[in-house]
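Data availability (excerpt). The following record was deposited with the supplementary files.
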Amino acid sequence: MAMRLYVNPTLTNCLFPACALVLGLLASSCNQSYKSSSSNDFARVVQDTNPPVEPLSPEASIKKIQLPPGYHVELVASEPMIQEPVAMAWDGNGRLYVVEMNTYMIDASATGEYAPTSRIKRLEDTDGDGKMDKSTIFIDSLVLPRTILPVGDQLLVGITNVQHIWSYRDTNGDGKADEKKIVFKNDAIDSRNLEHQNGGMIWNLDNWIYPTRDNLRYKYKNGKLLADTLVDNMIGQWGMTTDNYGRLFYSEAGPGLPAVQIQQNPAYGALNFADQYSEDFTKPWPIIGTVDAQGGREALRPEDNTLNKFTAGCGQSIFRGDRLPADMQGDYFIPEPVGRIIKRGKVSNRDGKIYIDDAYKQKDWLASADMNFRPINTYTGPDGCFYIVDMYHGIIQESEWTKPGSYLGGIIQQKGLYKNRGMGRIYRIVHDDFKRDTQRPNMLNELSSKLVTYLDHPNGWWRDNAQQLLIVRNDQSVVPTLRQIAIGEKASLLKQPSPLARIHALWTLEGLEAIDKPTLFKAFADTDAQVRKTAVWVSEYYLKKKDAEVMSKLATLKDDPSADVRIQLALSLRSHKTPQTQALVKTLLAENPKNELMQFSFTTFAESQKILQAEQERTRNLSPADRALVTRGATIFKQLCATCHGPDGKGITMGGKQMPAPPSGWLATCERR
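Predicted structure:
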């Protein structure tokens, strides 16, 4: 099979994203038998080819949602408690922070869109019935907030057009932030269309915080974010997710790419394959006519007016909970708000390369017949269930593409979509065979020794938050216990640690700067391949120090039976240029000639190194002022022009084929922005 790159490393898009998933079940889960939740035992039925646009109550809207047998929708929050929700996150105590873009597209001209009147609310379920009953405005007077990340008792926030990242804290317990600090400062204005700016932020398993776009990642240290520059731009748009092993999944809406940059960590460079997801996975199957697609009639199936391809994929998540059917765990879910559907993908690993296949044939896991249903983010919740953010908004396309005379502008006026605003819902998906976990998180108040036990929790939400909080606290007292768990000893757990617990223990030690060689070397010999892969990844701490003993131990893994381990070994070694590491990389490449991912990853890495060296040579003799001017020009080009024209102005690479750049008139327009 020929190796083909379908997304250029600096590719961004000119279209809107439209908004922009554990092993075993808890004892309290029901043990009833059930059919595979991805079986084809339900039918897609188109309800209306030209549906009405009048808003429905949350209860009426729920009745319009179709799911496979056994699944049901529960309302968690709705207007007036929340309006225009676009993202959300729980803190360690289970309090839910909801981002509201209150000024987004109130009409086709985006009147008043940048007014500082958007908010972040904090919701609480005080009686434990699963429905939010307390709401406070945690932060007010924001300009289109877009990213949030709870870190300890702080909430990190990013807003539109600004590249600073702030930390907010409630110091007196009234539910409102009264402390605001800059944790990352960047005075440069983000001049891109609001749909092309950062649309998510995640604390990954490797203890780096990743955004959806650009070439920075951050390490949280002493209340600040320390930036690390990546070789390539990340190209995600609205939302991002991670699996149990720290693999990140991005999506890019405009070109219709439901999953990008899924093959390797961005720290090793951009890498995409044309066949990393099936063609069927790019095709939504709505159950109502979707005439408000930006692509016009060509984007619709002539027989029923339904969207025929992805145009707004966003808010994806890997389900990592424990209170839904086990075959959902590790599956990839991505909303398509123009199609009013959520598509489900089965993720597989073949020889170290990731593939996503459609879970159903010509139908989707979730589909709504409510014209205003706009799913734009999904999450695994603390209760082990699946959550959906429904913006419930008439217009779901930014004003650059809704101008007078445009197809979509006409539809908006004709149907009065601009009238449908000021609403929003949060839903929970449950299943007949399972009960949601009613344990209320209290991590912010618990001892570090208790947090350690959550590293073996069957729900990924608990494991992730326990790891993060242990690192934020920097409590070195738990290091001996973590070392025991990392090598498979029971320690303070109720049972022998699972592979996932051992993985989290290794990364927690790394985050506490307490990883030691005896622990690492035992992890190299773990019976589980993902633990061995993790140990190789974590060993980069010692590779940076050119530790000869660690390099020697790593060499014993070159013939590991797992392709994942061998690939990670090649990735971790290749940037550390010592005779020993470079010889080992050369051996790995020679002994794995048919491993497509290893070979192509190294090829793209070598090419990017050559380009970087050439750029450095070109600017070596420039004055500081001229060098700054070139850098500024490159930044503008990457933000505004490379979107359509590619990194070299010759077009973008899609599916291994070169697509010509748009006509020169378009380039002139791009240059004028």
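Summary of structural features: The longest helix spans residues 596-619.
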